[in-house]
Amino acid sequence: MCYDPDAAPPAFTPALWPLAEASALTLTSADGTEFAAFLARPEVATGAGVLILPDNRGLSGFYRQTAARLAEQGHPALVLDYYGRTAGADPENRPTEFGELPGLLPHLLALTPEGLDADIAAGLDRLRAAGPAEVVALGFCFGGRQAFRTAAPRFGLAGAVGYYGHPDTINGAPGPTQLAAGLTAPILAFWGGADEHIPRAAVDAFDAALTAAGGPHEFVTYPGAPHNFFELSAVEYSEAARDSWQRLLGFLAGRTASATPRRTI
Prior knowledge:
CATH architecture: 3-Layer(aba) Sandwich
Structural class: alpha/beta
Oligomer: single chain
Mean pLDDT: 94
Distance between the termini: 37 Å
Low-confidence stretches: 257-265
CATH superfamily: Alpha/Beta hydrolase fold, catalytic domain
Number of domains: 1
Number of strands: 10
Order of helices and strands: EEEEHEHHHEHEEHEHE
Strand content: 15-25%
């Protein structure tokens, strides 16, 4: 588990634009599954759209707030929930035990790459309908792992950003390291140097695999930072969080260097 239910993202930059929309959505995947999402749009869109892929708890307040913070910087942002097939399309109507690993595990184990890809595709369609010419995936923990996967050409993304996404095999399932030869979009990855969940050797292997495949990437490791350092209450790691936020905004700006501001409707 990555973020507690009451976790919140840090705020480092003042809002540039008011929000035109911040609303819950229900999207439909290719197989007819309905699943929850959240869309935040700025009054004026000046940059790339961001598809936010949450940790293994799925859509929560942390990610709704993150979407709003990005929208305030001019980036339309949409968050997905993963559990429409097994837990329904209303994250607010799930039992308390869903937020703890024993209650979540059956739903997590039921996820498939095919189902995740279909939901990601539906989310991208809805986000692109909001107007951004380019879209970047941004994921945290489990979502960071998925964000790295979206660097494959079939998603048509301008880039992928992952915070502490495990890159190696899990329970025999290939990870981004094993898929590196097919990951062609630019990748920006943030790692905690004291992350007990992701060994340094796994990060180095992913780096080497992307380098061998010619995949453009930048890895940033923060010495002493834990797995979930990007969080408001983690004040002792605020400099790492601040630096990663600035790098994230710079990465997004690099995807839309020639963008013209667009008023959203």
